[in-house]
Specification:
The complex is a heterodimer of chains A (about 260) and B (about 230).
Chain A: H1 2-28, E1 41-46, E2 49-50, E3 54-57, E4 60-62, H2 64-75, E5 79-84, H3 90-95, E6 101-102, H4 110-113, E7 116-132, E8 148-151, H5 155-163, E9 170-173, H6 176-184, E10 190-194, H7 195-204, E11 208-211, E12 217-225, H8 229-244, H9 247-255
Parallel strand pairs in A: 1-5, 1-6, 8-9, 8-10
Antiparallel strand pairs in A: 2-3, 3-4, 6-12, 7-10, 7-11, 7-12
Helix pairs in contact in A: 2-8, 2-9
Chain B: H1 2-18, H2 23-57, H3 60-75, H4 78-89, H5 97-122, H6 126-134, H7 139-169, H8 181-192, H9 197-226
Helix pairs in contact in B: 2-3, 2-5, 2-8, 3-5, 4-5, 5-7, 6-7, 7-9, 8-9
Classes of the chains: A alpha/beta (about 260), B mainly alpha (about 230).
Chain lengths: ~260, ~230
């Protein structure tokens, strides 16, 4: 009995220490006039496995989000630094101040709004289902008892949860590409992911088909830490500018046909 | 300020664990981790024994296979082995992910078990084998009745340690879509958009498991030594 009491005491101590540390970290996030950790650098967090919004090319992160943020950073007179990480680590990194802004094909959702502030939206997307060509599946009704591959923490995974009979049918992967690999191997029966990456995957792999239009439209926006009004306003202003002068449209045309 | 901290901390714990019974992610994940560890341990010990014997006999193709096997498995990270087996080797096999993971972890463990068992057998005094043979026992009988029982006592600490390592290693199962304890914690983090509570809880649960295993092992070792 004494052994367990000791363990509980240690656990509580660890939690208390962690919360004190949290408090200190929260205090340190005193944003200056720029709303960013470093006044000269805008740190963008993303998951560079989501073409055409962000992906790796020649050792660099490129894509619609990368170019858009580069333009915005230029407007703000700041240097852009892109940090690549797992998609579901982004909210925590943002809350901890490890990144200043998320630009990752991030969909606006009310539950996300509780922990971050979204900028103006910049793209309309929808979730799409990817299946194998001769699978015979025509809609999500056919998939209610099948295995669905998704990326952890994405809208795709939330949408999939809506139409499956049991949550254990949802197979999560680190990113969309691995989910599609599993689909090609027959380890899952379908993948639910945003329509633009889905189109890219269908182009590269001749044995994939898309079931579109099953889900409602959603909007992408960038996100800053909750309460960071300074950065939010500055980014919205910069974005309005690049939208107004046509530079943003050029990026859209370049990456999204 | 401290009061606000405590309040926000208890909010976080509520959101992460209690709301919508989210602690079930951890409970179910725990069960999966234990299942994986157990099946991998069974495969690991069985295969490890075979490989150890191949390596000790040191004759021909079996010895070459054993050496190559150990080199490859010990020379590559477990997570790489897991993803290669799932996405490449057994990709079209139609096997469920849990089975593939058990195989991958079992194959990984076997290499380490083989070396541990081999070490334990080599540590038994050569005089024991000589005495056994001179008493008229065959080499297999000597192994079975004299060497291995003594080797087991040598091997137990290292083997027990290997199983503790195996439990921790199963935490990478999330890479191939399995929701183990670690991945369950990640799910909670992604639903709550807060990565602070769940990882701490996951770490604590792993710690409880490993210390229980270590103390059980300790008791077993002491029992065996009592027979000396």
């Amino acid at each position: 009995m004494g052994c367990y009491m000791k363990k509980i005491k240690i656990f509580v101590m660890v939690l208390v220490v962690a919360s004190i540390f949290l408090g200190l970290v929260a205090c340190k996030n005193d944003k200056k006039d720029t709303g960013t950790k470093d006044p000269k650098v805008l740190v963008m967090g993303t998951n560079a496995a989501f073409p055409p919004f962000e992906y790796m090319e020649g050792g660099q992160v490129v894509g619609l989000d990368a170019e858009m943020m580069a333009l915005i950073a230029k407007e703000l007179g700041m240097e852009l630094k892109i940090v690549d990480m797992d998609f579901d680590s982004l909210p925590t990194a943002l809350a901890n101040g490890q990144i200043d802004i998320i630009a990752a094909g991030l969909t606006v959702r009310p539950d996300r709004e509780e922990t971050m502030d979204f900028t103006d939206t910049y793209y309309t997307a929808a979730q799409t289902v990817i299946v194998l060509k001769d699978s015979g599946y025509e809609g999500i009704v056919d998939l209610s008892d099948k295995l669905i591959g998704v990326q952890t923490g994405t809208t795709g995974s939330f949408c999939a949860e809506e139409f499956v009979n049991d949550l254990s049918q949802i197979k999560t992967f680190q990113n969309g590409m691995l989910a599609v690999e599993a689909l090609k191997n027959g380890q899952v029966d379908a993948v639910v992911i945003d329509n633009n990456p889905a189109k890219e995957y269908a182009e590269i792999n001749s044995n994939l088909d898309l079931i579109e239009g099953e889900f409602a439209d959603e909007m992408y926006a960038m996100a800053v830490a909750k309460g960071n009004k300074v950065l939010l306003d500055r980014v919205n202003e910069a974005f309005a500018k690049i939208r107004g002068n046509g530079e943003f449209d050029k990026i859209i045309d370049k990456y999204v046909k | 300020m401290f009061e606000a901290l405590i309040r926000s901390f208890s909010d976080m714990i509520y959101l992460a664990l209690i709301k919508e019974d989210r602690f079930n992610f951890l409970v179910n994940g725990f069960v999966v981790s234990v299942q994986l560890t157990f099946s991998a341990a069974v495969i690991g010990v069985a295969l490890g024994l075979v490989i150890a014997i191949f390596k000790i006999r040191n004759k021909g193709a079996t010895a070459a296979f054993a050496n190559a096997y150990i080199t490859v498995i010990r020379g590559t990270p477990a997570v790489v082995q897991l993803t290669v087996i799932y996405f490449v080797i057994l990709a079209k096999s139609g096997l469920p992910a849990m089975l593939i993971a058990s195989i991958a972890f079992g194959l990984n463990s076997a290499a380490y078990v083989a070396e541990i068992v081999r070490g334990g057998i080599m540590a038994v005094d050569k005089g024991q084998t000589e005495a056994g043979r001179s008493l008229g026992l065959s080499s297999l009988q000597t192994m079975r009745y004299i060497v291995i029982p003594q080797a087991v006592k040598n091997v137990l600490p290292a083997l027990g340690n290997e199983f503790i390592v195996l439990l921790k290693e199963t935490s990478i199962a999330g890479y191939i879509s399995i929701v183990d304890l670690n991945k369950g914690g990640q799910h909670i983090s992604s639903i709550t958009y807060n990565g602070m509570v769940a990882p701490l809880c996951v770490a604590y649960i792993y710690l409880l498991m490993t210390t229980s295993m270590a103390s059980a092992l300790d008791r077993l070792e002491r029992r065996m030594r009592a027979g000396d």
